[in-house]
Each structure stands twice: as C-alpha cells, then as structure tokens.
Amino acid sequence: MALDRRDFIHLTAAGVLARTPLSRIATSAAESARYKGYKAVAFDAFPIFDPRPVAALGESLFPGRGAELSNAWRTRQFEYQWLRALGGQYADFWETTESALVFAAKQLRLVLTSENRAQLMQAYLRLEAWPDVRPALDILRNAGLRLALLSNMTATMLNTGISNAGLEGMFEHALSTDRIRTYKPDPRAYRLGIDAFDLRREEVVFAAFAGWDAAGAKWYGYPTVWINRLDSPAEELGATPDATGRDLTALTGFAIPPR
Predict the structure, then answer these.
(1) What backbone torsions phi and psi does residue 144 show, to the nearest 5 degrees?
(2) Are 221 and 199 in contact (CB under 8 A)?
(3) Which residues are catalytic?
(4) Is residue 23 predicted with pLDDT exceeding 70?
(5) Which domains does the chain have, with CATH numbers?
(6) Dihedral of CA 134/135/141/147: which sign?
(7) How many alpha carbons fall within 13 Å on the CB side of residue 207?
C-alpha cells in the first residue's frame, strides 16, 4: 500500500521510516511531487538557519535590553538594505547588518564596545540549523526535488551556515542577491532561482521566513510557503502565501501533494 502525504510526513517525523524500504518511500514521494509539476524548492536562509542565538547573545551582553536591541537592529537592518538599493548606494548584507547594529545601539543609548560589536556580528557566522531541517530536506530530496538557498545574505554567510549545520551537498545552489547587487523583494533577486534551476517560476516553490518575503515571492509568481517560525502576523501587502506553517512540515506537505 502506497504512503499518502500525511502518513509519509508523520512517519518521517516519528523516526519510523527506518522500518519502511527507502526505495518504496522515495518512489512514492517522487510520484507525489510530480503531481503539481514542482521540480525545485528555493529557501530563504532563515527557514534553514536558526537566528535565535544572535538575539540570545544580545541579551547576555545587554541584560534586560537584548530583545529591544534585537528588534531595533533587525528593523534597521532591512531598512538600510532597501534604502541603499532604492538609492543606488548598494552595500552587502554584512555591511548593512553591522551599520544597523551600530545605529540601533546608539538609538537605545547602549554602549557598544568594539568587542561587543565583533561578537554580535560573528554570531551570524555561527548559525546552525533548526531541528526539523535535515529530515525535511531528506524528504524533499527523496521526492526528486532540487534544492537551493536564495537569500540576501552574502555567499560567505550562506556557505558558512551550510557548513555549521552539516548540510554540505544538500543544496544545488547557494544564491546570494549580492551577485546582482540588490535585495529581495526586487524581482531580479527572485529571478536568480529560476535562472539557476533553468525552470519556470511555477515549477519552483519558494520557502520564506519573513512575511514580506512571502509577499515578494508571490508577487514574483512563485508558489510560496511561509515558514512562520516566529508566529508573526501576516503582512498587509495584498499577497497571501499558498501555505503557511510553523515549521517545514508545511513545506513538505505542500510540495509533495497527495497522488
């Protein structure tokens, strides 16, 4: 008896797949993935890499102010990226992130030493994967889906994250928008995915971490799954993702539909 989508995902999460022949599972999943014609998945970095240690380090350096610093830093981080892209004054993710940190600390009247600054920035080079990532990637690959990262982070940050997480060989591409000197949600950024895979946009599922990125991917025309790990409210941007969930089960359930 063939496994349906729900049974397949639940068996994997529970660790029961070891009792089921892998060839049978892979064949069933691959047939299901072809049902809607999906051939690849492009991930933003943060459905894969867990950013919470950066915020935790902020709290340890500035007790009682860490959450405040994290929120101000994240907001300014994206504002600087988008402002620079719009103004034709591009700077990469690393530089804009560091500039945003300095501004956020000044805004909150926090004394950011050069050592603190280096520690917080280096935390971005020590990110590891969320616990559900490896099983989900295995499911997707067994289904015959090609995988890539498509992120505003620099190539160095992406490749370091892949190494830290032990995910070498899992992604066909690690695509940084730095190569075209812009940021998502610029349509040219999303186009990197279809150009790299040499596929049509409707054949590539995009997995977003932020609500604005889910909207951007939908605007571009990707089938989009919002991995809303932080339980954030939906953005009021007139674009609704095709599926939403707190972890990558939402993605595997969408990309590998029932036969």
Answers:
(1) 85, 10
(2) no
(3) 44
(4) no
(5) 5-49+127-255 (3.40.50.1000), 52-123 (1.10.150.240)
(6) negative
(7) 30
